[in-house]
Amino acid sequence: MLKIFQILLLSLVFCGILRGDGVYVGVVEFQSKGITPRNAKILTERFRKELNKTEVFTAIERDVFYKQLKKAGVKKTECITVECLADMGLLTNLDLVVGAHVSMLTDSSYQIVINLVDTDTRIVHKSKTVDVMGELNDVIIQLELLAWNFAWRDPPEFLLMKQRLGASDPKVLAMTKPKTVGGATRRSIFIPGLGSIYRGRPFAGGAFLVSTAACIGLTSSAVGKYSKLQKTRDSKLSKYRDATVGDSIIFYRDELLDIDSDMSNVNKSIITYSGLTAVLWGLSIVHSRYSKPNMDDVLTSRLTRPRLSYDLARRTINLSWSIG
């Protein structure tokens, strides 16, 4: 009976780990060689986000992780060794910590050395050394695959397709095209809020879309009401001009004055609602253009001269340069 209870308990614990309940992971900023610090940061963030997508681990945000390290008095955060990663995990009260080193070997080849360390036992859960042929975007694809490998889960088909075709394939580029400022601005010019939604801010975009649509509806309703009043006024004005009896003249005059007053109020409403529409539409364009951009997919590098190289694996001659 005791053995059965132990087996059930272990099963529950294992299932909890697979669901990611309480399994918190810290990702140390990746070290790099031949890669700009900004690109190294982007690689780190892409790996962290992919860990969360596995639903096995909960990778805490970079700012939270380094804020805890700063409180603990840690100044140097560059590490990849088991001891160093385990110490960082203890200081931040995390279950697991990931560290990696990404090196540029040649113009079109990279190497990833990555470790997943258990904080309490100081044991390496997983350690991988992977060589990548291609561009930095191919390195991102490999890191995303490693995130699923570390979670002991099969990667999604889309990710496998990116690996098969390569980051430079037109189909992959079309599906993973970075969300640009220009693209967001154009969308918001045609439909308010669409640019914000396009840049990954659905709540702000939805608010702009709904509020602007409401103002457009109110403006349209006021214009319709003004048009009806105008027709009524024309009819009353015709009767006023045809009237010959004093009482009829006074009656139609008073009605025309009331209609003019109503038309003036409706006209003010039209100006107010159309002004609000213009302001909200303009704000949606500004928000889509100047809100904090998502730089996850945008890799840059220092300005280099054109370089000619020969790829032994692919048996091709490559001409490459970069502008950052």
Report what the structure shows.
- The chain has 324 residues and is an alpha/beta fold.
- It folds into two domains: 19-178, TolB, N-terminal domain (Rossmann fold); 186-290.
- The protein has eleven helices and eight strands.
- The chain has helices at residues 2-19, 37-53, 62-71, 82-92, 136-150, 157-165, 170-175, 181-190, 194-198, 202-242, 246-290, and strands at 24-27, 31-33, 58-59, 96-106, 109-118, 124-133, 307-311, 316-320.
- Strands 1, 2, 3, 4, 5 and 6 form a six-stranded mixed beta sheet that branches. A two-stranded antiparallel sheet has the order 7-8.
- α2 (37-53) packs parallel to α5 (136-150).
- The relative contact order is 0.09.
- The model is unreliable at 1-21 and 295-305 (pLDDT under 50).
List the helices and strands and how they pair.
Blueprint: H1 2-19, E1 24-27, E2 31-33, H2 37-53, E3 58-59, H3 62-71, H4 82-92, E4 96-106, E5 109-118, E6 124-133, H5 136-150, H6 157-165, H7 170-175, H8 181-190, H9 194-198, H10 202-242, H11 246-290, E7 307-311, E8 316-320
Parallel strand pairs: 1-3, 1-4, 2-4
Antiparallel strand pairs: 4-5, 5-6, 7-8
Helix pairs in contact: 2-5, 5-6, 8-11, 10-11
